[in-house]
Amino acid sequence: MVVGHQYKVIPGHLLARVKSVVLLVSWGAIPFGSLLAGGLLGAFAPAAAVAALTALTLLVALVATASPAVRKSPALTGV
Questions:
Q1: Rounded average pLDDT over 26-45
Q2: Most CB contacts within 10 A, which of 26, 28, 49, 57?
Q3: Alpha helices, DSSP H only, in 1-79?
Q4: Contact between residue 8 and residue 78 where contact means Cβ atoms under 8 Å apart
Q5: pLDDT-derived band of residue 8, with 50, 70 and 90 as boundaries?
Q6: Do residues 15 and 7 make contact, with C-beta atoms less than 8 angstroms apart?
Q7: Phi/psi at 32 (5° precision)
Q8: Taking the chain, what is the end-to-end CA distance rounded to the nearest angstrom?
Q9: What is the pTM of this model?
Q10: How many Å apart are CA 9 and CA 2, to the nearest integer?
Q11: Cβ–Cβ under 8 Å, residues 67 and 1
Q12: In the chain, what's the furthest Cα-to-Cα distance?
């Protein structure tokens, strides 16, 4: 759904540039997530580290869901 939405709202002449930035940010975040998880596991018990990462993931999901930019997207409302 995300890729379909991107194709719908990104102009064709900018699509390759936007997709390259999306991939850079999303794949570039993986090492930082691993570093964060390792740091949490080193500092806390495994159950506490998993709970902290779960809470962080839930927070990100809630913020994205509540974001007016996502909820009122022109591509989703047909405007």
A1: 92
A2: 49
A3: 2-9, 15-43, 46-66, 68-71, 74-77
A4: no
A5: confident
A6: yes
A7: -70, -35
A8: 18
A9: 0.62
A10: 11
A11: no
A12: 49
Amino acid letter for position 12? G
Q: Which residues contact 52 (CB under 8 A, 6 or more apart)?
A: 40, 44
Per-residue pLDDT reduced to its tens digit, 38-71 = 999 999 999 999 999 999 999 999 998 888 877 7
Please name the residues in contact with 49: beta carbons below 8 A apart, sequence gap of 6 or more: 37, 40, 41, 43
Sign of CA dihedral 61, 67, 69, 72: positive
In angstroms, the Cα distances linking 58 to 41, 54, 61 are 19, 6, 5
Neighbours of 25 (CB within 10 A): 9
